[in-house]
Design a protein that fits this description.
It is a single chain. By secondary structure, the chain is an alpha+beta fold. The protein is built from eleven helices and 18 strands. It has helices spanning about 20-25, 30-100, 110-125, 240-250, 280, 295-300, 310-320, 325-330, 370-420, 425-430, 445-480, and strands spanning about 1-5, 10, 135-140, 145-150, 155-165, 165-175, 180, 200-205, 210, 215-225, 225-235, 255-260, 270-275, 285, 290-295, 335-340, 345-355, 360-370. The strands form four sheets. Strands 3, 4, 5, 6, 7, 8, 9, 10 and 11 form a nine-stranded antiparallel sheet that branches. Strands 13-12-18-17-16 form a five-stranded antiparallel sheet. Helix 2 (about 30-100) packs antiparallel against helix 4 and helix 2 (about 30-100) packs antiparallel against helix 9 (about 370-420). The longest helix is centred in the N-terminal third of the chain and has 70 residues, at about 30-100. The chain is rod-shaped, with a radius of gyration of 49 Å.
């Protein structure tokens, strides 16, 4: 309240005052500006929160989609590289098996056998980066003949191999094929999982370790004139698996791990990893016979520090398969994409199987979801800033609108309070310009409120004028009704 010109208490013209605000709250009332802000501000913040939540959810979906697409392309590329090598060796072995069947190869004399080795060597030289050896084992007796290749810092080297019983020979061959030097040799695994009675039998060995290198061997039975005479085969070193995984992992801008396993119900065998190229040095282990072998998935999982992703994967396999193997996982209809939680975050894991004849390999790719999300949110920061700016602007506009609305309504309510007390003078004088004395009412710029204020002001002025005129007329009537004193000249003589 404030005092008017007559010293009377009148409602304050201030739109906002803490005392009026708290007095209203005590009586269960609040200014309309506060009510509007209590509605609009939480609504705006809520919309912003929902927008952020939907954006984050969309980012998660986008991260999963991006990871799925990325991993699918990576694994498809790896599978294509591996499959091309597998098929190349299978075709080479099949071609030389047909040479035996057609009689183009002979085992009649030692010279004939050396000629076969020369043919195999001629095939191997241009394909040494695809497969490592081509060989044959003659039956009965088990005489092993073959052509071999190996790389080192000086380039690619080639050799001819022979072994039967305790006798073994390995001849180093110069580029011109001369000066063959016997350096001694012991053959590796020649065939496995093959039916020697079946003329069309073909199979792959399980991945195995030989001289600290991993190998896989493919073999076919040799029949001439319907008679079994031996096994034609070839192998490649699995070192290319790790090389391929490392090269492809280096192209991925996110934290990731790629593993390749030979699928086996007894325990999946690691044949390559994007962590290291050295299968023989890192992946070997001493078994019960004190010999070396490739590590299996359970053995890797036991080393939680170095193989943490494998440990988490193995735990998942134990929960979802009877044997805890990728062999069983791929044998059933199961999702090929998983989300696994590691100490450094959630990883999206995708798996893919490669198969040919009895060969079954499994690829497993881990990629950190948070790295993908970070890249997505980094590109969306400007958009999120714009959304925050729009929301903040909306709140500011709401506050401004509430202030203008409260100002107009306060003026109306102020006039109503004065009018209810018949203080027309205060109503009419509150808008007087002190310098000119002219009435300059201040109305809202909101059309509807302007009409209300303008009409109300006109009504107050008209009503005040009418009341003032009525009071003037009433005073005039009262004056005419009272008799006036007659002049002294008109009083009869003798009258007192």
């Amino acid at each position: 309240m404030s005092m008017n010109s007559n010293g009377e208490a009148v409602p304050t013209t201030s739109v906002w005052s803490w005392s009026r605000f708290f007095d209203g709250l005590k009586q269960g009332r609040a200014p309309i500006s506060v009510v509007l802000m209590m509605f609009i501000v939480p609504l705006s913040v809520g919309v912003a929160a929902v927008t952020w939540a939907l954006t984050y959810r969309a980012a998660l979906t986008a991260a999963s989609t991006l990871a799925d697409s990325l991993q699918s392309q990576i694994l498809t590329g790896i599978a294509s590289i591996f499959t091309s090598r597998i098929q190349a060796l299978e075709q080479a072995v099949d071609e030389h098996t047909r040479n035996w069947r057609a009689g183009r190869f002979s085992k009649a004399t030692e010279v004939d056998k050396f000629n076969v080795v020369k043919t195999l060597l001629g095939d191997l030289v241009p394909h040494a980066h695809t497969y490592t050896t081509l060989h044959f084992v003659l039956m009965p007796g088990g005489a092993f003949w073959g052509a071999d290749s190996w790389p080192d810092e000086d380039g690619m080297h080639f050799g001819a191999m022979f072994q039967q019983g305790p006798i073994s020979n390995y001849w180093l061959i110069n580029e011109d094929g001369s000066n063959m030097t016997d350096v001694g040799w012991k053959m590796n695994k020649t065939y496995e999982n093959i039916d020697l009675t079946n003329s069309s039998s073909a199979a792959w060995t399980k991945p195995y370790l030989y001289t600290n290198y991993g190998f896989a061997t493919h073999s076919r039975t040799i029949f001439q004139d319907g008679t079994f005479i031996g096994v034609q085969g070839g192998n490649f070193a699995l070192e290319f698996v790790g090389d391929t995984l490392i090269e492809l992992a280096d192209t991925i801008p996110y934290r990731s791990y790629i593993y390749a396993f030979g699928l086996d119900k007894a325990g999946d065998i690691l044949i390559g990893s994007s962590i290291s190229r050295a299968i023989g040095d890192i992946y070997r282990r001493d078994n019960a016979s004190n010999s070396l072998g490739l590590l299996t998935l359970p053995e890797l999982a036991a080393n939680q520090t170095f193989w943490e992703p494998i440990r988490v994967l193995y735990a998942q396999l134990l929960r979802t398969t009877p044997t805890g193997t990728l062999f069983d996982y791929f044998s059933q209809t199961r999702p090929t994409t998983l989300e696994l939680t590691l100490p450094d975050g959630v990883y999206i894991v995708q798996m893919k199987e490669i198969s040919s004849l009895n060969l079954r390999w499994g690829l497993v790719h881990f990629v950190l979801r948070d790295d993908i999300l970070d890249a997505l949110t980094r590109s969306n920061k400007e958009t999120l800033g714009a959304v925050a700016g729009v929301v903040s602007g909306g709140i500011v506009i709401t506050i401004a609108f509430s202030f203008f609305l409260a100002t107009a309504l306060h003026r109306i309510t102020r006039d109503l309070v004065l009018l209810s007390d018949f203080k027309f003078k205060d109503v009419l004088q509150k808008d007087l310009d002190k310098s000119s004395g002219a009435s300059r009412p201040s109305f809202s710029r909101i059309a509807e409120l302007w009409q209300i204020q303008h009409a109300f002001h006109k009504m107050v002025v008209t009503f005040a004028g009418a009341i003032s005129q009525k009071r003037f007329l009433e005073r005039g009537n009262m004056s005419s009704a009272v008799p006036s004193r007659a002049p002294a000249s008109m009083v009869p003589e003798g009258t007192v």
